[in-house]
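Whiteboard transcription, Tuesday session. T.W. wrote the structure tokens on the left side:
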């Protein structure tokens, strides 16, 4: 009898790799900017652009995996909120600040993207807020618009100890997370559509139903799940509140990946890409949009454009990892966490 298991660390890395590829395709093609060739399979449905818009699901996928992973790790012992915050925020912010210091000065010096150009007014205040990763919660974009997600993940980390403590009421939290879409909570705008995916991640980490579904071994079931995934992905843009719908699409994508995955070449490639997902998320907008847009889009072929950005991003990400090794980045991070953490009695 086949043993049923949830998502492994390898699955999580592979799914992050898939989410990152969705992210790159989304940012490259969600706007008809005239820099790439598109074509229509149905009158008015431009396939490259529409798939680019649909790939926005990457955000919900990242958020779901974060909620799932945090809940799984917390199952190994009691969750200390203080130590959780110290550990998660130290790792998150140190990585963010490293990318900031590597890429923002380059833009200021070579491309003239000074704080005055980026912020226009209240420069010092906005610079501090942006450096803390909270610009989107205060209604503006900073040096990198993609960093709006920092506000999202920071807030989700803030709520996680509470959500995990009362995880038995996850269904109630899911209902509430859907309702807040229509509640005007300005400072919580970054999580408005993504709290649902985060709560679903926590819920699925303890759900036997989720484990059973992702462990389906019937060929007919696999075929039906694949067809469902493709169909929902193609029609995603026609749903009302598509960002909220992404929470459901995320689960379908994960189930599809899990029932079709054979730990083969594709799995290994996705794991490799997923290993660099955080770094690439943080800097790729500088590469494809601000600094080297003409080079990235030079072929006008969407497939080539995508693989050029992916290849360049992986190369830069590997260089950044070498820099982190040289700086003893991980050791410094661990020492800071150790010094600030509250020791268990």
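and on the right, the sequence the group agreed on:
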């Amino acid at each position: 009898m086949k043993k049923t298991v949830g998502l492994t660390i390898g699955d999580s890395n592979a799914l992050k790799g898939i989410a990152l590829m969705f992210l790159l395709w989304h940012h490259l093609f969600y706007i008809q900017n005239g820099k790439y060739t598109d074509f229509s399979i149905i009158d008015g449905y431009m396939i490259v652009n529409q798939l680019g818009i649909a790939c926005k699901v990457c955000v919900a996928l990242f958020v779901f995996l974060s909620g799932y992973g945090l809940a799984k790790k917390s199952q190994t012992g009691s969750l200390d909120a203080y130590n959780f915050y110290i550990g998660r925020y130290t790792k998150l912010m140190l990585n963010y600040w490293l990318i900031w210091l590597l890429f923002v000065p380059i833009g200021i010096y070579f491309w003239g993207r000074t704080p005055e150009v980026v912020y226009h007014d209240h420069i010092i205040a906005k610079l501090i807020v942006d450096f803390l990763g909270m610009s989107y919660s205060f209604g503006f974009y900073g040096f990198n618009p993609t960093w709006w997600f920092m506000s999202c993940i920071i807030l989700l980390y803030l709520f996680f100890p509470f959500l995990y403590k009362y995880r038995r009421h996850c269904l109630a939290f899911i209902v509430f997370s859907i309702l807040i879409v229509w509640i005007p909570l300005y400072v919580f705008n970054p999580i408005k559509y993504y709290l649902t995916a985060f709560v679903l991640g926590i819920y699925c980490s303890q759900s036997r139903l989720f484990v059973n579904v992702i462990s389906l071994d019937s060929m007919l079931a696999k075929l039906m799940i694949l067809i469902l995934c493709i169909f929902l992905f193609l029609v995603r843009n026609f749903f009302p509140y598509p960002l909220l719908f992404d929470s459901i699409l995320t689960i379908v994508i994960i189930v599809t990946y899990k029932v079709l995955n054979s730990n083969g070449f594709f799995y290994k490639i996705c794991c490799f890409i997923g290993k660099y997902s955080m770094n690439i998320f943080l800097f790729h907008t500088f590469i494809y949009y601000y600094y080297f847009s003409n080079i990235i889009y030079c072929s006008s072929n969407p497939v080539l454009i995508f693989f050029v950005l992916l290849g360049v991003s992986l190369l830069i990400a590997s260089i950044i990892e070498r820099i982190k090794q040289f700086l003893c980045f991980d050791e410094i991070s661990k020492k800071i966490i150790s010094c600030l953490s509250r020791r268990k009695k």
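Someone added at the bottom: The chain has a mean pLDDT of 92.
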